[in-house]
Write a structure and sequence with these properties.
With 305 residues, the chain is mainly alpha-helical. It has one domain. The protein is globular and about 55 Å long.
């Protein structure tokens, strides 16, 4: 009885989100103004060699972390669990496995990584650096190619390409579970590598290409408006994304995670927000809100079991 009572209260935010989603789309459909006003900005100054330097730095930090894991934990800790049943095991995310361990400190670390670090790092790399660079290239090509201007809406190519890469990097299938110490080490190294790569990228681009705060998608005057926009975007897309996730879990084989398919549509929305505003805060807020809601729904499912 207590569990049913608790589940009722836990279900209230879900019902509120669904009602809010419907209300947002009603407002969107009846208003005559653009959904997100387009705010132009000069093309970002970085080029492909700059992105490659940043990528090499990130991979070098990750490689150093794996080497350190082998030294500190020992080679045996890096080996996956020996027992694996592909018919029974599902493609569970490593972070979800760590959160289910019951260790409070690991749980807090996972929350920090999922709710704060991942949205900032991923939006910085995929929307700001990658999509910003693709948009700069699109501007140059649209001036020369009449067919491109006629049949492909401005910004569609960069949004689509960055969304495809974002979804592909989240592809996951079931496999032998990594041992807990190595999973924790990987989580910590991903957090550190991501934050270091962001700081390195900002320093490199400011020093060698003269990037400004506007190029980095930052304008403090729009901060609270961007937070509201990100939250409105979350209310608009979260219920459909979770409905699609639920349907794909039922339709896809258990060894294949549905994340890339739902994250592709999420990335399209994030890319649209960045393209229309050319600021990073709306996408970061929406991403962080969705990750936080995913953690809440996962905890609710644990309680229900």
């Amino acid at each position: 009885m207590l569990t049913a009572h608790l589940l009722f209260w836990l279900s209230l935010p879900v019902m509120a989100a669904i009602i809010s989603c419907l209300a947002v789309w009603v407002v969107v459909l009846i208003r005559r103004r653009p959904l997100v006003p387009y705010q132009p900005r000069p093309s970002v100054p970085w080029r492909l060699p700059d992105l490659l330097v940043i990528l090499v730095f990130y991979l070098a930090v990750q490689g150093a972390a794996l080497w350190a894991a082998g030294v500190i934990l020992g080679g045996e800790a890096l080996q996956p669990q020996p027992v694996y049943n592909p018919d029974r095991d599902r493609a569970v995310h490593g972070v979800a496995r760590l959160m289910a361990e019951g260790n409070v400190w690991i749980f807090v670390l996972c929350l920090i990584a999922v709710m704060f670090v991942a949205p900032v790092v991923e939006e910085f790399f995929f929307r700001l650096l990658l999509q910003g660079w693709l948009e700069a290239g699109e501007v140059r090509r649209r001036k020369r190619l009449v067919t491109l201007r006629r049949y492909l809406p401005r910004g569609a190519g960069p949004i689509l390409l960055s969304a495809l890469l974002f979804a592909r990097l989240h592809f996951r299938v079931a496999g032998p579970s990594l041992q807990q110490p190595f999973l924790v080490f990987l989580l910590v190294s991903n957090v550190i590598a991501g934050l270091l790569a962001v700081m390195f990228a900002i320093a490199w681009l400011r020093r060698f290409v003269g990037a400004t705060a506007s190029d980095f998608g930052w304008d403090g005057r729009w901060l609270w408006a961007d937070v509201r926009l990100g939250l409105w975007g979350f209310l608009a897309v979260a219920p459909p994304i979770y409905l699609l996730q639920y349907a794909l879990i039922r339709l896809l084989p258990s060894y294949l995670a549905p994340d890339p398919f739902t994250l592709f549509f999420l990335a399209l929305v994030l890319g649209f927000l960045y393209f229309r505003t050319h600021r990073l805060a709306p996408a970061v807020v929406l991403h962080a809100a969705l990750n936080s809601a995913s953690v809440f729904l996962w905890l609710t499912s644990l309680i229900a079991k």
